[in-house]
Every structure is written in C-alpha cells, then in structure tokens.
Amino acid sequence: MNGRRPLLAANWKMNKTRAQARNFVEIVRQVVSPFPQAETCICPPFTALGAVNEGIRGSGIALGAQDLYWEKEGAYTGEISGPMLAECGCEYVLVGHSERRQLFGETIADTARKTRAAWDAGLVPILCVGESFEQRRSGETERVIETHVLEGTAKLSAGEVGKLVIAYEPIWAIGTGLPATSEEAQRISALIRGLAGGRFGDPVAAGLRILYGGSVKAANAAEFLGQADVDGALVGGASLDPTEFSKIVAAAKV
User: Fold this and answer.
1) Which of 2, 67, 130, 159 could be stapled to 169 by a disulfide with Cβ–Cβ 3.0 to 4.6 Å?
2) Whose CA is closest to 61, among 120, 23, 10?
3) Residue 167 banded pLDDT, cuts 50, 70, 90
4) What residues are labeled active site?
5) Reduced to 3 states, what is the DSSP secondary structure of residue 102?
6) Concatenated DSSP letters for 152-204?
7) Kind and range of the H or E element at 56?
8) Helix, strand, or coil (residue 95)
C-alpha cells in the first residue's frame, strides 16, 4: 500500500450527447458509490460538461475536460480556456493526449503551456505521455517518455508536479484491443516515477499518481491496477458503457 488514491478517468472523446451523458451518470453514480477507495473522473465532450456536472453533484465523482488552450481569453476561435472549464465545475483536464498530438499537430511545447495554464486555472492536469508503434519498434520508448515527462512538466514547480497526474498511454495500444502487458505498464510507470524523482526529488515522485491507458477494460483492469507504480487508469472505449466502467472502478484498491 503506497497511500496514493487510485484514479479512474473516463475519456469519452467525441461521444455522447447531453441526453446520453445524463443517462450514463444516472447509472454509474449508483454503482461506483460503494467504492470510495478510488476516485472517479468523467471527461465528456465540452457540450456535455454541464449535463454531467449536474448529474454527478453530491456523488463524489469528479468532472474533467478533454483539452484546453493556454490563453485565458482572446481571438482563438474554437478554443476553450482553463477559467471557462473551472466555471463549468471541472477539477481535471487532459493535456497532451496522443490524439491531440497525432491528429492536430500539438507539440510537447504546446502541452507544457497547457499544463501550466491548467494549474493557473485551478485545474489538475492529467498529462498524457506515450510512444508510437514505430518509436517502440526502433527502441525509442525510454527517450520518448523522458522527453514527454521532463518537457511536459518544464513550467511546473516541484509542489505542482507532486499533485500532478501522468497517464502513460502507448499510442499503439489505444483503441486497438492490444494493451501493453501489465509488466510493461509497471516498467514504464516506474520509469516515469524515477524521472520525476530525478528532476523534482523522491518525495515529489512518491506522491505522483500515474495512470495506464490503452485498451483498459473490466477483464484486464485488476491486472494493471495491481502494479506497484500504476495508480489508476485512463479509460477510453470501455468508459462509454456505464456497467463496464463501473467494473473497472471496482477493480481499484489502495
């Protein structure tokens, strides 16, 4: 037991209308309430933030967003700021998700600015890191993770990093049904903790929560969550089903 409270974060991506979000929350809040040992966070599309926030009120479930821009306001058509998300009731926000990097050209410098902006708005960033299949095949996994972790946290203080959440999501495992092995998830999570310790000190690293993301489902959740340095999961496709997601939450132990 390491004292770090497990975090199970549902990333709905571009799925669910407000009505569908309300139905999901109505089911899941009844099921996850018996498992206070784990913290649960739902990250719906921006359009469903209000509906989810209303539905989770008083449940202990946290609200998260899937992205933000690093400026507080201005002529940035289509973007959303940290203060706007905080006003919607968000506690967490994903930054640097691989789909933002792959599909929309987000750089690690962009991610670092977003991580800083999240903290400035009172949001806890869930910093996503992970290598592609090509990078893994060429033996670059460790280098990529080091770059993502150290450059992604470059604008944070040691105290902020200690409260940060980092999600290891190997790109080759996302949505493919081919998750990393639990041993590999542990190895990379330990690497991330070591990198944080080397830059910010061991006490900071000890409090850092590290999630695994990539084809996590009820059938394999306990295996991942049982690893010493894996403190939860960032769940994609499996989080769209309230029953499946609730089983993942139930697999978490302190």
Assistant:
1) 130
2) 10
3) very high
4) 97, 169
5) helix
6) HTTTS-HHHHHT-EEEE--GGGTTTS-PPPHHHHHHHHHHHHHHHHHHH-HHH
7) helix 49-56
8) strand
Instruction: Round to the nearest angstrom and report the end-to-end CA distance of the chain.
Output: 6
Q: In degrees, to the nearest 5, what angle opens at C-alpha 9 toward C-alphas 63 and 99?
A: 100
Q: CATH classification of 69-241 is 3.20.20.70, yes or no?
A: yes
Beta bridge partners of 210: 166
Q: What is the pLDDT of residue 34?
A: 64
- The single-letter code of the amino acid at 213 is G
C-alpha span between 107 and 102 (Å, rounded): 9
Give the separation between CA 224 and CA 173, rounded to whole angstroms: 14
198: which residues sit within 8 A by CB, 6+ positions away? Answer: none
Q: Cα separation of 120 and 245, whole Å? A: 31
Calculate mean pLDDT across residues 68-78: 98
106: which DSSP letter? -
Is the pTM higher than 0.90? The answer reads: yes
Q: How far apart are CA 69 and CA 229, in angstroms?
A: 30
